[in-house]
Amino acid sequence: MSASGGTKAIVAALSANLAIAVSKFTAAVFSGSSSMLAEGVHSLADAGNQALLLLGGKRARRAASEEHPFGYGRERYIYAFLVAIVLFSVGGLFAVYEGVEKIRHPHEIEHWYWPVGVLVFAIIAETVSFRTAIRESNEIRGGQSWTRFVRTAKAPELPVVLLEDLGALVGLVLALGGVSLALLTGDGVWDGVGTLCIGVLLVVIAVVLAIETKSLLLGEGAEPRSLHRIREAMVDGETVTRVIHMKTLHLGPDELLVAAKIAVNHEDDAASVAHAINAAEARVREAEPLARMIYLEPDIYREEPSAPAEG
After folding, report:
1. Which of 63, 167, 208, 283 has the most CB atoms less than 10 A away?
2. Please, which contacts does 135-144 make with residues 24 or more away whose CB atoms are closer than 8 Å?
3. Which of 122, 153, 136, 148 lies closest to 47, judged by CA?
């Protein structure tokens, strides 16, 4: 996986979630807290999600074949979409169900120090994981806002880990609030309210991830800055005089397909045109390293004659 795939952030999140899941399930058994049970399932689902991201990155590196001539780079998008589905179903809907059941049938939390201790440990562990994801994202985010980074990133792993970790941290705070209120008031309904809030939060995050990864699966073109670099590099003003039209498509986060019709001089022979195309491809690859597959069609550009003035 490329550096932009955020492997370090994924591994950090996977390690944290496995440790947290074990501690949460232990606390749920000893305390009877539904918030702890929901949070345990959430952490286990998150760990499975990170494993899916790593698997998707590994499968995306397979060489192109006759059946898949453009390679397998978009498998990373497929696995990111699966993560959104798992987060929605296993994480969000399960927590909503547990929250509703606990509100309908509340019971007192036993051995309060178990859930409180685990939640504090989990907040610390998730904070470390979240900081790792933020550091890796800052290396490629540039001057973009966080919202724009999540919406425009072509590598899906870092946005997924960022939103998962953010959701986990907010969920932990909600769980701690629900447990604390249940202990202070002696009413287990608050534990259910905290669980329900966690479920709603996870469903919202899962929907956001699904929308963004769906766009990547459908196929997104190059960003405006990349398009500008490609157009500027393609035209040299001598052998290639202009780009008549151009289309781009991300075959994966690290691979861009470029197809364009370019204008060449009408007096050039076949050898000159072939040389012009090869030179244009070399300039584009130098200006935009992601442009690995380039298909250029030469043509003669003619200005459309302007319509004669009336009267």
Report:
1. 167
2. 136/6, 136/8, 136/9, 137/6, 137/9, 137/162, 139/3, 140/4
3. 122
